[in-house]
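Subject: Sanity check before I submit

Could someone independently write out the structure tokens for this chain? I want to compare against mine line by line before I put it in a report. The sequence has 160 residues.
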Amino acid sequence: MPARPAPGGDAKLQDALGRVDLLAGEQIYFTLQADGLFLGVNPFAKLMSAINGMLMTLTGGHFRVFLVVTNQRLLVIRSSAVWCGCARTQLVRSMALASVKEVASEKATQICCVHTRLVQVHSITERWNLAIKKLGDAEIRQFLTNLSSVIVAHSTRAGV
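---
Independent answer below. Compare away.
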């Protein structure tokens, strides 16, 4: 699988990856940047999330979620800050690739032209729903194919 950086998020991605120490021999295969404020398909909720995001940015805050697939694990990196960093939260979650059991993508359309692309990752213990803003159908399909091949490779190796 070729490395695939998040489009337009190189500086933000590098900042997020600065919180993670890669393991020996670990390589990044694919990254996704998700919208941390919005998870559904309702156009009104999408508008409210855009307004909330704009207000957060104007006050010096942010809410970023990255999904990073490496050859050894899956990383979820979440960073949020409000009021110029007065309150800050950083989360790094690492999951073994063998614990990822299912991935899914969904494209929902409301009012004929408001599209929402979602990626779901199911592990043994939890489920992540991520609204993807900056990738098209082909890139999400490539992500799904790549992560699916990793899941299949690890399930046959583990004898599941």
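---
OP: Matches mine. For the report I'm noting this point. Residues 88 and 152 are 37 Å apart (CA to CA).
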